[in-house]
Records
---
Amino acid sequence: MAALTAAAGLVLSATPAHAIPAFTPGAAGAGDPYFPDMGNGGYDARHYDIALTYRKDRSITARTRITATATQHLSRFNLDFLGPLTVHSVTVDGTAAAFRRTGAQELVITPRRGLVKGRTFTVTVTYSGIPRRIEDDALGVSGWVATDDGAVALNQPFGAATWTPVNDTPADKASYAFALTVPNDLQALANGEFAGRRVHGGQSTWRWRMPQPMASELAMIAIGRYDITAGRTPSRIPNVTAIDRNLLTSPEQARSFHELTEEITEWGADTFGRYPFGATGGIVDAVGVGYALETQGRPVYDRKGRPGINPGSSLVAHEIAHQWFGDSVTPRHWRDIWLNEGFATYAEWLHGEQHGGATAQERFDGLYATPADDELWQVEVADPGRNNLFAPAVYDRGAMTLHMLRREVGEERFFALVRDWYARNRDGNVTTADFVRHVKRYGDPARLEALLRTWIGTTGKPAL
């Protein structure tokens, strides 16, 4: 038969009709050059359902259920998860799976049978212990941070894995649901829309949901004693704000913060396009980390040691602007963080100039007067390096780059450029190369590419 078919010029496949696929392990990293241990390969996380109980001894017991889709024929896969939390059980589609801890943060899971590419599966992990915070000399504090009356989880750039098993890469966004059980004298907040509270015995369970895709570094939990204000913006966006009671000195303080959040959310929608999420808000707390963070739908502002003093309009404009740039439109790799911080910093300038403050040109001129040997000019903004993720250049030169684009293309085209960047990439991931391609639609492509190369792709003080 072989000779006959060869002579006749026919080719017959030797592969059986129902060949068993070759199952291989998912990668133990997502390929980010700054954080090779973060994230994992072989699957796409679609939804996280987190049920967590917090106790007065600061311990937690929790169950995280992850719905994911296999992106290869998967023999085993990893989640990012840090000690000292103890894993009690792991199941895949309800069946017990083998698991082990290895490396810096790997929870390696081997299901009883391989997962075929394209299959949606559910992995459930139960665990307990006292989560820890992470302290990094260059990047600061992240993770589960204990406070005087509870805890706040802040995950940028890493930290989510201190309190939940996760695919900890901004390239794999998913929806989230939270059921947070705390003693009755505490409140529990998280991202997104409030989904109800149930009191049972001496505890209460607070439910929150974020149906839009969210990067793990933007997930947030806040447990403590808060004064909570709820309402809606003029365009009917639910607005939930909270202030740590130890920082609250008057009812006017809570009302003022709530109204400022509302005003800037509405301003952002008018300036950049429809607000990305189902709820807005903010949390003012005594965390002690020394920064504010654009946690999705509800930023956190650390004001430890500053009772009675709310975050100002410039800071709130920065964090609310991140809801468009950084949260909805999210860099795929950490080196592109200027797409977060440059945009949010320029939003501060725009809001200020439209509300009686310095103009964006005046802010630009003040920075440009910085001497040429200053650190501002020594960082390559589009690839700053791991330890310079939060360097001033990423923020300030990022904003200066956008101002140079505004000067080059003019007011009308610039604001169209910004709005369209958001509209085209909403809920997705982007790179600097994507932004360069986008910008070149709005003027002379060679001039615009050269401008961007000068301001974000090189070091040294650019000539004007």
---
Amino acid sequence: MRLQFLLLFAFIITLPGFGQHVVQRNSEIEQLVQQISSDSLENYVRALASFKSRHTLNTDAEQGMIAAQNYVKVKFSEFSSKSNGRLTSMIDEFVVPGDGRRIVTDAKVANVVAMLHGTNNKQDPRMILISGHLDSRNKDVMDATGASPGANDDGSGVALVLELARILSQTEFPATLVFVAFTGEEQGLKGATYLADKAKEMSWKIEAVLNNDIVGNSNSSETNISNNTVMRVFSETIPLAEDERGATIRRSINSDNDSPSRQLARYIKELGERYVDHMEVKLIYRNDRFLRGGDQTPFMKNGFTAVRMSEMNENFLHQHENVRVENGVQYGDLPEFMDFEYLRKVAAVNLASAASLALAPGMPQEVKIDVRGLSNSTSLIWKAPIHGIAKGYYVLMRETSSSMWEKKFYTEDTSLKLPYSKDNYFFAVQAVSAQGMESLPVIPSPLSR
């Protein structure tokens, strides 16, 4: 069905003396968010955990990785039948060359991919990619046969991908939504590297990658913190694919905290907290956890905008551990140690962000900040997005010490002059549709002549 947009105005009043904060929710996005089911997510996770081992190198067609891939493909096919043919899916096989480490010899593996095609692919080739990894592991990363249920790592991410495919496949979007269950994450990000390289070679217009890895637990080991109201979004600071020209501009305007991935992270925080009650999205200024990595990294290396979504409190008794009871303590990545209501909220943050991007116009082009003379005001100019129709634009502003955008100025022109000094503030520009859907922000580069 084609969405008919209405704005729902929800007013949230803070404590006296702190003023009022107005939250504007698009009613159709809100209805999509409300369709996410913790029961559905639990069913997906338990089905995935029921396979004996989803190790990348496991070739058991009944209880191993191949069976798990077929399960995901069957679910995508079920959703496709209700999408009027707009959702297509495939098991995308490829060969990973042996590296003598985590891939001993050449191995045939596969990602499971579904595409919800946009309403006009030729005119609007933008893609939004939502992912998790299907493979699981034990303490020994080369144990391809031992029981490794992988409920949270990363059955939770794949369950989220399936649930969003189920819900979003019944709606039309201008941009294409791509749902991926990667393989080979634990063996060195093999599936993500393959798809990121394929996307670069085929010039896919991927606007954002939302990678979900370990998103279904709310209790930490050791500290025993239990909190299902906070999640993390990791985003790179200096882009991994930055060239010398980009580095020169970044250094000249001091935009170290404004990479495209950081803009995506801020967008997810704003949209997620707008639509999901009792959920705080924490921005983590790292590509991933300390000295660790995830499937978002190959996309960033190829110049795509990507982030990692993850739970706030990890429990290492149930991550990369063999299933066993030791000294009365249960180890292993089992479904009973997950919080499916928490997983529902993380899925809702993903859905609100991805659907909003897929409905918004593309980003404004050639965004510039005028530096041709000294001034205590700031002038910005830009061009309309290549894809989609912008009714207007938000010029965003924040103090240099602030992590989030603090003010939005609306205009229907392609320029705006503000009585604020560029010495003291950072600025960006978003395109906005007639229905109020916002693009990712773009940081301006200097206009000096």
---
Amino acid sequence: MVDLFIMEYLTVLYMIMVFLFMDSRYSRRRTLFIVSSVTILLMAMVDALYRAVNMDAAFWIFAITIHIPLILLLFTLSRFRGWRLIFQQLSVVLFCTVIHHISSLIYYLSGSRFWVLVLSCTFLSTWSIWFLVRFLRPLFFQILLELHRGWWLICLVMATYYIISVFLIPGYAGFDLRGTILKPAIGLLILGFYSILMFLFSNVRKEAEARHNAQISVLQLSALQSRMEAVRVAENAIRTERHDLRHRLQAVAELVARGDREAALDFLDAAQQRLDDHKPVRWCRPPVLDAVFSSYFDQARQQGIQVEANLALPDTLPVNEGELAIVLANALENAIHANLELPQEQRKLRCKLLASPGIMLELANPCTGGITFGPDGLPLARLDGHGLGCQSISAFCRKHGAVCQFTLEDGWFRLRLIL
């Protein structure tokens, strides 16, 4: 009875941990339905296995019965692949194994009282699930997104622990004294390694956030300085025009006195045109975004790129203005660089940004082709150090639950973003 309880309990615990450690590509409801269905099926298989073979064979086959469907389930549902997928699998195994071994140690020390085993399993599982949901899970997914190297080494350490603890140390935790002591001890040791790993990742995340905030501050300062410079130039031009106004009025008066009304009107139209040319354009209400658009549209025009813009944004935005400014700056910079590869008569930039019913952005530019897309839908960089702008846009979308799409249609490269 105790053997069957442990195997069924571990089956349920494995599936709960899978749900917690997995960033599913499907909706939460669909993911929960799939995981629940697999859990019920595995529990029935475990019960059949327990009744078909003896305890020794059941414990050995149990690992295969659970872990093969587990990795297949993760492969089917998870957004991640490669070593990140293996890390998800091994994290599930680590927490489940440590909970099992510690509760088995408590059960052994209590004199093999079944109610103590049930109580310890319940308490440890509840506390671990609360800790994962409250603290570890957000950091875990952030690490999967931001860490790009070293996954194989981390997986090697965790896989070594699993092989040693489950297959190389003889005896079963809760039934054999040696296994009951050694397995929790090694589990706590590897859990300490995992905690140090999370701590280091947490520091890396804080540094990344600090760099991101600094990048936003630099962009805001640069864009606002550029905007201020444009306003200052316009003010100087208007001041000059105001200084020359009395001369122009005198000239107009002379033309009217002569009866040359057409020449007077043309003279006034030319003066009005000069004033309009120096008047700074306000693209949208939010000041940082207005400064970003002004800066990059001016750069585009200086490169001979025809700009078509349709922008409509309110004063308040559903996201941080600085973060959205980073997205727009990256997208506009990429579009300008792509245009520079074309003859000047073909250079164009089309930008549409609306805020109703939600923020909807479409940025399009002609391109020479040759763009390939990765499995995540992002354009693949042709040179080292390139492609960071698209990755930054994708990270913004994941953070705020936005949808972005990169497409190449009829010679036009388009970025569509809906928030």
---
Amino acid sequence: MTILRRGLIVLLLIANIVLLIYFVNGIKEPPQEIIAENVTLVAAPDQTEAEIHPAFIKEEFVLTLPEGENIAVDKKIKDNGFTDVYGANRANDGKADGASYWEGKGYPSIITIDLEEPANIHAVRVVLNPLSIWGKRTQTIAVNISSDGESFTELVKTKQYTFDPDEGNQVQIPFDETETRFVQLVITENSGAGGGQVAEFEIYSK
């Protein structure tokens, strides 16, 4: 009986091996015939250098300044508070790069330029450092004017503006030509810092 059992076990093992070989060979996909008329040939483009897909090409930004002259450079300027060493005098020195910017201390952040004499103005340009390290952000800004530096009236209502490095990190605020001596920015929100930020506060006169 023991010999018979062993014989049966051997036979079952052999049968399993045969079935396994059969199924392994059986699941192979038959070769598929390629029909020439169903094949589309596409000519490779002549390419002598690396090319960028059009979807990844940014449209070049071309800066157009407001008409006239920026009359704010090196004029008297003051703020209602600043952070660290970033005082108001850095906001109209004619430089927007590096550490040459003003940063207010909390909100509202207020910065005021004295043009020293009345002038007809028609636009304000607010600039941040143009480098992309100064990431895209929003600031909510109002523009006020005054003839005596004490009593201010609203010239441009509070509005949220977007500063984007791809567009020069600057915003231009045009308005009807008006005569004034003092021009003031009141910033009540900045998504990139705890206070208003201005690298250059420009005021344009024709």
